[in-house]
Design a protein that fits this description.
This protein is α/β, with parallel strands linked by helices and about 375 residues long. The protein has 16 helices and twelve strands.
């Protein structure tokens, strides 16, 4: 039986980014071992996936002494386990996991790239993060960007040897669970409770944003564009599902003030029930500055919620302008405002775009399809 070690920095990534994938591979006959730091999601992950888990105390932040310790712990663990494949996700786990696997003599070392943090940073931080990406790619035997546009970006900026690069299937790290993300699957009582929570009024128009409330998710531009829209149409609302991360990439002080005082904006915090908000939304707005292959767009598409998003790698692999959604120039407040206006003026058109998107997701990104592509690639690598 071949053994696969799957590594992420924190267990939340196993729970949110890769649910069901480890269980699927176990069902196909692999022994799967999960590795991450400790966290509140850990017990749930182990129960859901039915796979063994090992804790390595990694952190997202750069911490040289702790990182070296984790590298040593990973090396010892991998050397002991003797896996056929080590497969990493997230930047820190990728760097440490690929280095440790190479030192331990593992032949098949895979790193999945789901977005590049350095593209939204400047100065020394940018140079360090770019160096880390290149070092991770050098240590890996295979580098799998999770979208075709990200694949091209990595080639253009020489972040990895082209011979190592591949996109699995049509992209996406894990696909979308259409059993869960479906209008038919919603619980009527829960939907009613969400309506009560946001004081839902069918006469109002609800735009929705799902994700961390940070600068590189485009929150500053979104707030400015919404303010302008609200000034001409007080029936619009903006619902934010997500939490602040002030230590990592805070929004501006002006944005924070507007978020706490604007009568048309409501923050509901982090939620594991985004599908209910998507069902109630007129459209999802996703103004992110960087992505790999964003799950939130797959989720919105599966819920037949119209999409308005930034024209960046990752987003453009899912949304085709005016066919499966609307695209605007990243960081451009005026262009975002114009797309919000367009959506209000053309409800029939954007609902047809949502129908087109749902069809495409069912065809290419249903989770069993994505899992099958990954399984086939594992088998091919083990056979070569």
């Amino acid at each position: 039986m071949h053994k696969i070690i799957r590594i992420t920095t924190a267990p939340i990534s196993l729970n949110v980014l890769l649910p069901g994938q480890m269980k699927y591979m176990k069902e196909q006959g692999f022994e799967v071992v999960m590795v991450s730091s400790d966290g509140p999601e850990l017990k749930k992950v182990i129960e859901k996936e039915g796979c063994r888990h090992h804790i390595i105390p990694m952190t997202r932040r750069m911490s040289p002494f702790r990182d070296l310790k984790c590298l040593w712990l990973l090396y010892q663990f991998i050397k002991k386990e003797k896996p056929s494949i080590v497969h990493t996700h997230t930047p820190k786990a990728g760097l440490l996991g690929m280095l440790a696997a190479k030192l331990a003599g593992v032949n098949i070392r895979i790193h999945t790239v789901a977005g590049l943090r350095y593209v939204t940073t400047k100065g020394l931080s940018r140079r360090i993060m770019m160096m880390m990406e290149k070092l991770t790619s050098k240590a890996a035997s295979h580098v799998w960007p999770n979208s075709h546009s990200l694949y091209q970006f990595m080639i253009d900026y020489k972040l990895a040897n082209k011979k190592k690069l591949a996109v699995i299937g049509n992209g996406s790290s894990n696909g979308i669970n259409l059993t869960r993300y479906s209008v038919e699957a919603l619980d009527a009582d829960r939907l009613s409770a969400i309506k009560t929570k946001i004081n839902y009024n069918e006469k109002l128009v609800y735009f929705l944003s799902v994700g961390r409330i940070v600068n590189d998710k485009g929150m500053d531009e979104l707030v400015q564009a919404f303010e302008k829209l609200y000034a001409t149409n007080s029936s619009v609302r903006l619902i934010l599902v997500g939490a602040f991360e002030d230590e990592v990439d805070p929004v501006s002080a002006d944005t924070k003030k507007i978020l706490s005082t604007h009568p048309g904006i409501q923050m509901v915090g982090w939620s594991n029930e985004v599908e209910y908000y998507m069902r109630l939304a007129y459209a999802l707005v996703h103004p992110s500055h960087r992505e790999g292959f964003p799950n939130v767009l797959l989720q919105a598409g599966a819920m037949q919620c119209p999409i308005i998003c930034s024209r960046i790698p990752g987003n453009i692999d899912i949304v085709e302008h005016t066919h499966t959604g609307l695209l605007f120039t990243v960081k451009d407040v005026e262009d975002l405002y114009q797309m919000l206006q367009y959506s209000l003026q053309n409800p029939t058109a954007i609902n047809q775009m949502a129908c087109n998107q749902l069809h495409r997701i069912r065809q290419y990104f249903h989770q069993p399809i994505v899992h099958s592509f990954l399984h086939q690639r594992y088998i091919a690598l083990l056979s070569s």
